[in-house]
Specification:
By secondary structure, the protein is of the alpha/beta class. It has a single domain, classed as TIM Barrel, CATH 3.20.20.70. The chain is built from eleven helices and eight strands. It has an eight-stranded parallel β-sheet with strand order 7-6-5-4-3-2-1-8. Strand 3 (107-112), helix 5 (122-134) and strand 4 form a beta-alpha-beta unit. It starts with 18 loop residues before the first helix and ends in a 12-residue tail after the last helix.
C-alpha cells in the first residue's frame, strides 16, 4: 500500500533545536514515577511494543525459532503478557521467522537497504527490499545514506525513501536515521521531516550497531517532529527508538514521554515500538517482581 507522499521539505522550514532546552526537558522524564498498578500496565504495554531482534552474523534457524517463540509467548502460561509486536531479522531469515510466528499476531520485520551502513547502490538496496517482502516480511527497516545527508544531498534522501516505500508494496516502512551519526539535533529534526514527507510509516533512531544509539533527547526531537507533521498534514507516523534501551526503567521513561508529547493515541504497538535484543528479559523480570514482590533470577528466562 503506497503511503501518501508530501512535498520535499525545505531546510529552512525545519525549526532550529535548542539543545539545552531539549536535554533539560528530556531529563525531567527521568524523575517521573509510576504507581504499582500503573507500572504493571506500562510494563505489559512495553512488552507488546517490542520488536524482538536478532541481527548477528551468527544468527541461525534455531536461534530465530527460539526468538519467535519468545515473541509469541513472552511468559509461558501467562496470556496477559504479550505477544510482542514483531520479530526483526536479516532478510535471509524472513521465511524462517514467517513460519515460526504463523497463526499469531507477531509481525515479521526485516532490516534492508544494506543494513547497517547503507553503503550500496540504490538499485541493489531496492532489490534487497523486494526480496525481503517477497519472503513474507510485513515491515521493512531501511537505513538512509547518512553520508549523503551529511554532504547536503537532502533531496537524494527524500527520493530514496520514496523508492523504498514503493518497493515495500503492502509492507510498512520504518526509516532508520542512525541519529548517532547525524551529529546534531538540527540534523535529526530535518532527517525526520524528510522521512515523513517521503512516506515513512515509522521513523527510527538507530541500527543498534553504532556506539551512540537511542537517547531520550533524540527521541524527544523526533516525537516533536511527528507532532508537528501530524498537526500540519493530519497523518500519523510511528516512532521506534532502538539501541541502548536495555532496562525496564528506561523503557517506561520513554512511554511517559510518548504520552506527554503525542498523547494516548500513540500508546499502542501500531504507532510505537522498542527495538530490543536485551530489553525483553528485564521487562519480564520486573513484571514477575510486581506480581510476587521479589526478583526471579535471569536464569528463569530464555536468552535471545
Amino acid at each position: 500500500m503506497k503511503s501518501e507522499v508530501f512535498p520535499f521539505p525545505a531546510r529552512r522550514d525545519s525549526p532550529a533545536i535548542d539543545q539545552s532546552g531539549v536535554e533539560e526537558r528530556a531529563q525531567r522524564f527521568c524523575a517521573r514515577s509510576l504507581k504499582k498498578e500503573s507500572k504493571m500496565s506500562a510494563l505489559k504495554l512495553a512488552v507488546s511494543m517490542l520488536d524482538v531482534t536478532t541481527l548477528e552474523g551468527a544468527d541461525s534457524v534455531g536461534k530465530v525459532h527460539q526468538m519467535c517463540q519468545k515473541a509469541r509467548q513472552p511468559l509461558p502460561g501467562d496470556p496477559s503478557v504479550g505477544p510482542a509486536a514483531a520479530v526483526c531479522v536479516y532478510p535471509r531469515m524472513v521465511s524462517t521467522a514467517v513460519k515460526a510466528v504463523e497463526k499469531s499476531k507477531v509481525r515479521v520485520a526485516a532490516v534492508a537497504t544494506q543494513f547497517p551502513s547503507g553503503q550500496m547502490r540504490l538499485k541493489e538496496r531496492l532489490a534487497e527490499v523486494r526480496y525481503a517482502v517477497g519472503e513474507g516480511a510485513d515491515e521493512i527497516d531501511m537505513v538512509i545514506s547518512r553520508g549523503q545527508f551529511l554532504q547536503g544531498e537532502y533531496r537524494a534522501i527524500y527520493e530514496e525513501i520514496i523508492a523504498c516505500k514503493e518497493a515495500c508494496g503492502k509492507a510498512h516502512l520504518k526509516v532508520i536515521l542512525e541519529t548517532g551519526e547525524l551529529m546534531t539535533y538540527d540534523h535529526v529534526r530535518y532527517a525526520s521531516d524528510i522521512a515523513m514527507a517521503a512516506g515513512a510509516d515509522f521513523i527510527k533512531t538507530s541500527t543498534g550497531k553504532v556506539p551512540i544509539a537511542a537517547t531520550l533527547p533524540v527521541t524527544l526531537v523526533m516525537l516533536q517532529a511527528i507532532e508537528d507533521f501530524h498537526e500540519r498534514t493530519g497523518r500519523m507516523v510511528g516512532m521506534k527508538p532502538a539501541g541502548g534501551i536495555s532496562n525496564a526503567k528506561l523503557a517506561l521513561q520513554y512511554l511517559v514521554m510518548l504520552r506527554e508529547i503525542l498523547g494516548t493515541k500513540w500508546l499502542t504497538p501500531k504507532w510505537f515500538r522498542f527495538g530490543a535484543s536485551s530489553l525483553t528479559n528485564d521487562l519480564l523480570m520486573q513484571i514477575r517482581k510486581q506480581e510476587s514482590g521479589h526478583y526471579q533470577s535471569g536464569d528463569y528466562f530464555t536468552q535471545d
